[in-house]
Specification:
This protein is α/β, with parallel strands linked by helices and about 675 residues long. About 25% of the residues lie in helices and about 35% in strands. The strands form eight sheets. A nine-stranded mixed beta sheet has the order 16-15-17-18-25-24-23-20-21. The chain has a five-stranded mixed beta sheet with strand order 4-3-2-5-6. Strands 8-14-13-10-11 form a five-stranded mixed beta sheet, with no helix packed on it. It is built from 14 helices and 35 strands. The chain is extended.
């Protein structure tokens, strides 16, 4: 762009005048329309020259930037009374349609239950309340610090993370408490936890967590029934204020099949909400036990870790034995875990050569690999090197069973010798070896489908992995699940069933009722292109409409949450392959939104304080409106924006040039002046 655009524009005008004077006045020519034609030629030439220079035009625009006012309305079923619903309607009108609010703020109206919805329609049918997610998503939608959030709710959430964790966004939140804030005496069962399975004639734990709120001590009777028969009774005593009571009860598994356990608390005198005094859970009693022999020749922390992890499943029993004792008990064993085999295992391996007993072999620095290579014919470790620290590396191609949620990235290394592992049977690598940051392209944990199932782990120190799992998540669940699924592969054929199901026999909260399935191809790799169909029948045998199962990353899923409470049988069919699996489940009529009657004004007040807002009630909503209109920090801000626009972007100038040239040519042509 020229440094002095005005100078160049004036120069263009002078050049244009000179050209016009030369063409129309210096040489004799027609006198009709001379001045008009000269003017047209001047503007056309001047416009062309200005476009060639292309000066920049600075444009300044002044505008007002308003704060955004986001109104979140609770649309869950916990808003039950007519007065509470009317209060929400009034708030929607006050802040959503008030002209003064519209002049001051840019408004967004949302409703929420389990999810946030950009709508002002209220039907109060949402079966869950997730206030934290609503605040998070509203903040993301705003994408600005110049905003204020008004949330009208009873403050009772039953899904997602606590909404107090959404307080660090820098946006002030003004809660408006809906409903009755009076705190009534209330005793409730918060959790009833049981294992998925129990073994026949064994005891199984039932964990009950009870909470109480009230001004005076409370005494209630806890009764537990199994398929309608009372199996336990206890008196629960709780102190005044907010107190809890927790107990783990051992019950007998006396019959094979599905058991519906119900925990019931007697009502307190004058207690208004008794719907939360009862919880139901289900478990299945099976007459099946896996007998595992953990064979070793020396003590090591890995042995205790494996034992504790295996015993997380009550269907399994494990004994720590020497190779000599294992030989005596071999006929009664369903699975052998061979820990760092040496020459003392010779007789045991000779006996195993005549039996197809599944086994898991864990090697390490004390393993006698020369002996192990000769004692069996499935695998061989060649080019054996010194022991080293080996980090686990997940193999994305593993497909025998699903361990997609198991993260080993922070696990410590195992100690074991390096070498080239040769396997003479079908196998898949679950974990590879990484040594000093280098992928050795050798298996650390491999699962083998030979004449018998076998897992081979080439390293010791697995006890550190269980500690790492606890450090990462606060429990041992991920590690124990890895061990459980590995043993299931060995003892139950693993993924020899190409179609597998994952479901709960009892869904107390029908909102989470889903049936999952996995289908594998002939190579036992997950098949993402299968067509799985769920066929349902109710308790009377009437068939319901079939439902296609949707693909979700590495499994298929069908949502059965819309079914009415009852017991259902189902069958999953895998297209035209001929594979199918069946099961049954029960849906309970459980209302999450009825578990609390009083509004949680205390927590909402804490949310307001942590975000810089204030707590209001429906009868003080007009005061909130006035404070928002009068607050200086929410006043619109006048801003200006300067734009530098090239003249060539002005299309009207090009149009004017063409129009002038066309008009000049037409006049000269029409009057015979060409």
């Amino acid at each position: 762009m020229p440094d002095h655009p005005v100078f160049w524009i004036v120069l263009c005008a002078i050049l244009s005048l000179g050209l016009v004077w030369f063409q129309y006045f210096f040489r004799p020519g027609p006198t009709r329309f001379r001045y008009f034609l000269a003017a047209l030629r001047f503007f056309a030439v001047w416009g062309l020259l200005v476009l060639l220079i292309n000066p920049k035009i600075r444009e300044t625009r002044v505008f007002l930037e308003k704060h955004r006012l986001v109104l979140l309305l609770d649309n869950s079923a916990s808003i039950r009374t007519d007065s509470s619903r009317q209060a929400l309607y009034n708030l929607r009108s006050l802040f959503g349609r008030d002209p003064e609010i519209a002049d001051r703020f840019d408004r967004d109206l949302f409703t929420f239950g389990d999810a946030l919805s950009l709508s002002d329609s209220l039907d109060f049918t949402a079966g869950r309340t997730n206030i934290g997610s609503a605040l998070d998503r509203a903040t993301q939608a705003i994408n600005s610090d110049h905003a204020v959030i008004l949330i009208a709710t009873d403050g009772n959430e039953n899904s997602g993370r606590s909404y107090l964790q959404a307080a660090g966004t820098g946006i002030p939140v003004y809660p408006i408490v809906i409903g009755d804030t009076t705190r009534y005496r209330d005793i409730r069962i918060d959790q009833l936890n049981v294992n998925r399975y129990a073994f026949l004639d064994n005891k199984f734990p039932v964990e009950v967590l009870v909470s109480y709120s009230g001004d005076t001590p409370a005494v209630a009777e806890l009764e537990i029934t199994d398929n309608g028969n009372r199996v336990y009774r206890e008196t629960v005593r709780l102190g005044a204020g907010n107190s809890t009571w927790q107990s783990e009860i051992l019950l007998d598994a006396q019959a094979v099949g599905f058991h519906r356990l119900a925990a019931q608390l007697s009502a307190l005198p004058g207690e208004r909400n008794t719907s939360n005094n009862r919880r139901i859970a289900g478990l299945e009693v099976v007459d099946e036990r896996t007998r595992i022999l953990l064979v070793h020749t020396g003590n090591h922390p890995d042995l205790g870790t494996l034992r504790r992890s295996i015993l997380q499943n009550e269907q399994r029993e494990v004994r720590l034995v020497s190779p000599e004792t294992a030989l005596e008990q071999l006929d009664a064993a369903d699975l052998l875990i061979l820990y760092q085999p040496d020459t003392r295992f010779r007789s045991l391996f000779q006996a195993l050569a005549q039996r197809d007993v599944p086994r898991m072999t864990l090697t390490g620095p004390r393993t006698h690999w020369s002996f192990l290579n000769q004692a069996q014919s499935v695998y061989e470790l060649a080019d054996i090197g010194p022991a080293d620290d080996i980090l686990p590396l997940r193999d994305a191609g593993f497909g025998y069973f699903d361990l997609s949620d198991w993260d080993v990235s922070g696990y410590p290394p195992l100690e074991g010798p390096l070498g080239n592992l040769l396997i003479g049977a079908e196998n898949q690598t679950l974990l590879g070896q990484q040594v000093r940051g280098v992928d050795m392209e050798e298996p650390l944990l491999v699962l083998i489908k030979g004449p018998y199932r076998e897992a081979l782990l080439q390293g010791s120190g697995i006890w550190q992995w269980r500690m790492a799992a606890f450090r990462n998540s606060g429990d041992f669940a991920s590690f124990d699940e890895f061990i459980a699924k590995t043993l299931l592969f060995l003892t139950a054929g693993g993924s020899s069933k190409r179609l597998t199901l994952d479901y709960q026999p009892l869904y107390e909260d029908s909102g989470n009722a889903r049936i999952r399935a996995r289908f594998y191809d002939e190579s036992f790799a997950f098949e993402p292109g299968a067509r799985l169909t769920l066929e349902l029948a109710d308790s009377t045998g009437n068939r319901l409409e079939s439902r296609p199962m949707a693909l979700r990353s590495d499994f298929y899923e069908a949502d059965v949450a819309g079914l009415p409470p009852g017991t259902y049988q189902f069958t999953v069919i895998a297209g035209d392959s001929g594979f199918s699996e069946s099961g049954s489940f029960s849906l309970m009529a459980f209302d999450l939104e009825a578990q609390q009657l009083s509004s949680d004004a205390a927590t909402l007040g804490l949310l307001a304080r942590e975000t810089g807002g204030a707590l209001y009630y429906p009868d003080t909503a007009s005061e909130l409106r006035d404070s928002l209109l009068q607050a200086d920090r929410f006043r619109p801000v006048q801003k200006s924006r300067r734009n530098v626009v090239p003249l060539i972007d002005f299309r009207w100038l090009l149009f004017g040039i063409v129009s002038c040239l066309a008009a000049e040519w037409f006049i000269r042509k029409y009057n015979g002046l060409l």
